[in-house]
TrEMBL record:
Cofactor: a divalent metal cation
Metal-binding found in the keyword field: yes
Listed EC numbers: 1.3.3.3
Active site: 107
Important for dimerization, as annotated region: 244-279
Subunit structure: Homodimer.
Annotated GO CC locations: cytoplasm
Species the sequence originates in: Achromobacter spanius
One GO term of the biological process aspect: protoporphyrinogen IX biosynthetic process
Pathway: Porphyrin-containing compound metabolism; protoporphyrin-IX biosynthesis; protoporphyrinogen-IX from coproporphyrinogen-III (O2 route): step 1/1
Name the record gives this protein: Oxygen-dependent coproporphyrinogen-III oxidase
Site feature Important for dimerization, where: 179
Location relative to the cell: Cytoplasm
Length: 303
């Protein structure tokens, strides 16, 4: 594993976490809690979190660098030739659940994975990068969606013209609730298994995604945080948060990997909203503000 510049990636990720937390603390007007932890099998991390804030009802910005002796099934299912290898994974993952229903929930993740060469075998360490940003509004605004996707497109433009449309489509397909026949939100960009361009180019693209987060999200927060809302909007927000829970527990590969690899449960499930609800066969009243969300939960071109 020492052949790869793991320390350089780690330095970037810890710096990214610090920058994001500093910006979110300024927006919130209060500090995030710091919770440093160690993993018995190897590695650890730093969880930065806020609960019960005026802006963010729950926010988690997590750094982890963990190691193991055998790849878990979720990591080796598509790479059977790597089964049995030691591994290490590091990344920054975050989910923000705002209090105001007019401010969308957002998720961002950037990560690197290394499967180590086995002693006595003529093979090399295998690396891949992954990550993405996506937006989950409850009451959608066209200008917010276009802004978010414009930032995502521009972040990838210098790496090649095909990356944004390909990763945008990947995001639409990944964050899809098959049992509901709807996307989780309005998408963004998502990628995984990135190593074909080489280490330096793959790392540079991953940095572009991580660095784009604050530009993509904070302007939307500032536009919407002052909008007045009532218990009606909060009720709908809780209902839609239920769909967020469904995706994370049923489909999300990161959640599965964390649980299968013996990860820290408190950190893995910090992505869950603080409150959510489910109703039997409920549908919004036609023509209501709540009904306006449905057309946004299908892929479309935003920019």
């Amino acid at each position: 594993m020492n052949a790869l510049p793991v320390a350089t990636v780690r330095d970037y990720l810890t710096g990214l976490q610090a920058r994001i937390v500093q910006a979110l603390e300024a927006a919130e007007g209060g500090p995030f809690r710091a919770d440093e932890w160690a993993r018995p099998e190897g590695g650890g991390g730093l969880s930065r979190l806020l609960e019960g804030g005026q802006l963010f009802e729950r926010a988690g910005v997590l750094f982890s660098h963990v190691k193991g002796t055998k790849l878990p099934p979720s990591a080796s299912a598509h790479r059977p030739e790597l089964a049995g290898r030691a591994w290490e994974a590091m990344g920054v993952s975050m989910v923000l659940h705002p209090r105001n229903p007019y401010v969308p929930t957002t998720h961002m993740n950037v990560r690197m994975f290394v499967a180590a060469a086995r002693p006595g075998h003529d093979e090399a360490d295998i690396f891949w990068f992954g990550g993405g940003i996506d937006l989950t509004p409850y009451y959608p605004f066209e200008e917010d969606a276009r802004h978010f996707h414009t930032v995502c497109r521009d972040a990838l433009a210098s790496h090649g013209p095909d990356y944004y449309p390909r990763y945008k489509r990947w995001c639409d397909e990944y964050f899809y609730l098959k049992h509901r026949n709807e996307t989780r939100g309005i998408g963004g960009v998502f990628f995984d298994d990135l190593n074909a361009p080489g280490f330096d180019a793959s790392f540079a693209l991953t940095r572009s995604v991580g660095d784009a987060f604050l530009h993509s999200y904070l302007p939307i927060v500032e536009r919407r945080r002052g909008m007045a809302y009532t218990e009606r909007e909060r009720d709908f927000q809780a209902y839609r948060r239920g769909r967020y829970v469904e995706f994370n527990l049923v489909f999300d590969r990161g959640t599965l990997f964390g649980l299968q690899s013996g990860g820290r449960t408190e950190s893995i499930l910090l992505s869950m909203p603080p409150m959510a609800q489910w109703r039997y066969d409920w549908h919004p009243e036609p023509g209501s503000p709540e009904a306006e969300l449905a057309p946004y939960l299908t892929p479309r071109d935003w920019v």
